[in-house]
Amino acid sequence: MELDYRNAGLVLAHAKGSTSGRIGWESPSNIAIIKYWGKYGQQLPKNPSLSFTLSNSVTRTWIVYSPKEEGKGSGQINLKLYFEDELNLNFGGRVEKFFLGLLDIFPFLGELDLEVRTSNTFPHSSGIASSASGMSALAMGLCTLEQELFGTLADESTFLRKASYVARLGSGSACRSVFPGLVVWGDQSEVSGSSDLFALPLASDRIDPVFYTFHDDILIVSKGEKKVSSSVGHGLMDGNRYAENRYAEAREHFSQLLACLESGDVDGFGKIAEAEALSLHALMMTSQPPFILMEPASLAIIQQVQAYRERTGLPVYFTLDAGPNIHLLYPDAIAAEVAVWLDEVLVPHVGKLRIIKDGVGLGPKKMI
Ligand code: DP6
Fold it and tell me: Which amino acid residue places its CA nearest to atom 12 of ligand 1?
């Protein structure tokens, strides 16, 4: 699909709204069931992915803006970023680079003094994708800014598509966080309108209601920094001898998952979710250099999940991102039993664990 958001006319001289103010968005992280791992071009995925948007793990971001002081060069980004109320030059530099890359789309960014104030509801380095929530919150803010200055994004679906496109440029998986529920990113013939350029929500008539009740308990095995950044990880796929097979597998899994979602096949869903997580980790192990991202405790939890499922027949499944923490996925109908198992079996077996309770959420919310 051709989509060109470059618009040289979006400059303050043409603004209809006030050129100073503040805009705030709260945006969630997401957990991929079909994983995006391998990219090309400007953050375009090698295979389609599908995720649950989360509910409690969110980034809250304010953008405060005013016209640049006379004489300060336009075409440059003038930005200060505060993370958790402290000036953060490192993160500020990343966002500045992101905004610089967006000047063709939002030329007015070069004409503003910008202050970004951002915080997360989840701990730093907890393995929850803060780039997904952070970049999607920024993208929602920038599209609101465009709408407030020029009135060009009044139509909701036009707004969301652009926000998803822009979020993707910040971090691939962030484009999925713009939407509630179950979200698809990547061109896939079985989902009409799907594109590599932006995500879209999977239509609710293709999803059995049980999947909207899913919990995601995030078991924090390690709080350390990521061993390998996503960008480096994606890059390693280029030299991975299993890469082409992996992309084919992801497409097959995607198609099978659609059938499970539609028919309410929770076990089929869980098997695919686990196979995807293990493939992702296998790919890291077969990269050059190889990375082992699981910790002993990750394996201990996986074995406990499998044993619990065998013993009880209850549909509790796991997935992982590119790190050691385990996401436990299960429908709300068995939440009480799972809570007892966590307390009485899993935690005593694995040792003290921090658990972040989350589940399928409703997508970004504007703050006032
Ligand atoms: C394992 O979206 O963080 O979480 O596009 O380089 O920012 P960049 O990568 P990122 O990769 C996410 C990888 C993953 C799987 C997924 O979320 O689909």
Answer: 173
Q: Which residues constitute the domain of residue 122?
A: 12-206
Q: Using alpha carbons, select from 333, 33, 49 the residue that is nearest to residue 194.
A: 49
pLDDT in tens, 147-171: 999 999 999 999 999 999 999 999 9
Domain CATH for 62: 3.30.230.10
Q: Which of 176, 206, 236 is the last residue of a domain?
A: 206
Using an 8 Å Cβ cutoff, are 28 and 54 in contact?
A: yes
**CATH number, position 263:** 3.30.70.890
Ligand 1 atom with the smallest distance to the CA of 39 is 5
CA of 68 from ligand 1 middle (Å) equals: 34
Query: What are 344-361's pLDDT values in tens digits?
Result: 999 999 998 999 999 999
C-alpha gyration radius of the chain: 21
Mark whether 161 and 282 lie in a shared domain. Answer: no
Residue 365 covered by a domain:
no
Structural domain tally of the chain? 2
* pTM for the whole structure: 0.97
Residue nearest atom 4 of ligand 1, based on CA coordinates: 321
- CA angle (208, 211, 217) in 5-degree steps: 170
Nearest CA to ligand 1 atom 6: 231
8 Å CB contact between 251 and 47: yes
C-alpha 65 – ligand 1 centre gap (Å): 30
